[in-house]
Amino acid sequence: MPERRVVSLHDGSQMPTVGLGTWKAEPSKVGNAVSVAIREGYRHIDCAAVYGNEGEVGQALIESMQSGVVKREEMFIVSKLWNADHQHAKVKPALERSLKLLNLDYIDLYLMHWPLAMHDDRSLNFDIHFMETWKAMEELVDCGLARHIGLSNFNQAQISEVLSSGRIHPAVLQIENHPYLTQTELVEFCLSNNIQVTAYCPLARAGFPRPDRPGNLLEHPTVCSIAAAHNATPTQVLVRFQLERGITVIPKSVTAERIKENIQVFAFSFSDEEMKSLHAINLDWRIVPNEGCREHPLFPFSL
């Protein structure tokens, strides 16, 4: 089986299959995490304006490039447009702020973080449709500030609207994905329409305390059994699960050993039976339900 270190996007460009997530990566730690990741072979770093740590990520990127560890063209850097910047006139300045913090001239992939808009105070904004925002993002490609644009946390109907009404094809959909939330129908829809899928929260560990939280996936008997069969860790099983499905994956860590562990997933693969057993864990359970936005007409989740 191929190693699946990269996938081809709709235009033939290549995207590394395993990246470093930076959501909830603490300031004073995230920069070192990025530096470690690059030394360990990561070439895909996932960021977002709302994470509040792009400046530290950018410092690590420029230091890694200036020291000769990596070249800019070898990196695939992702950022996301926050909900308060959906108005057409705010989109380009928002990316320019992220680029300045990241010490970059262009972004490899710019995602609309959510399909719904907010005001600066995080109250819901009902006046802006995501197609207005998408058209502004298309202009970022036209002027060279973004190599690709895509979506995050969109549902199938919303993606279909972008496909039918947009001028530029969305390159990627980033969604929560792990064995408790496999979203198979949405994944298959995207892949069949040449939209790469990226899984965030692949270990089902991030988020907030919830009374309905199921058991720790890293301790699930199925995951542990498959890990033992392949001389792998449960974490590596959960990362590899996404690669077997054709999904790119961005596990987050600020610990050097875990960062190294998370990318050592190319020496083994799963049988059809093992994949079926992992899929069977599905509970349609979200770590990030975003309940505070449920009243917005563009709220993307039905479960």
Commentary on this structure:
The chain is α/β, with parallel strands linked by helices and 303 residues long. It has a single domain (6-293), classed as NADP-dependent oxidoreductase domain (TIM Barrel, Alpha-Beta Barrel), CATH 3.20.20.100. Helices cover 35% and strands 15% of the residues. The longest helix is centred in the first third of the chain and has 15 residues, at 88-102. It is globular. It starts with 5 loop residues before the first strand and ends in a 24-residue tail after the last helix.
**Secondary-structure arrangement, i.e. CATH architecture:** Alpha-Beta Barrel
Quaternary organisation: single chain
The name of the CATH superfamily reads: NADP-dependent oxidoreductase domain
Number of strands: 12
**Which CATH first-tier class would you pick?**
Alpha Beta
Offer a concise description of the structure:
This protein is of the alpha/beta class and 303 residues long. The chain has helices spanning 30-39, 54-66, 88-102, 130-142, 156-165, 184-192, 221-229, 234-244, 256-263, 272-279, and strands spanning 6-8, 14-16, 20-21, 44-46, 76-81, 107-112, 117-118, 124-125, 146-152, 172-176, 196-200, 248-249.
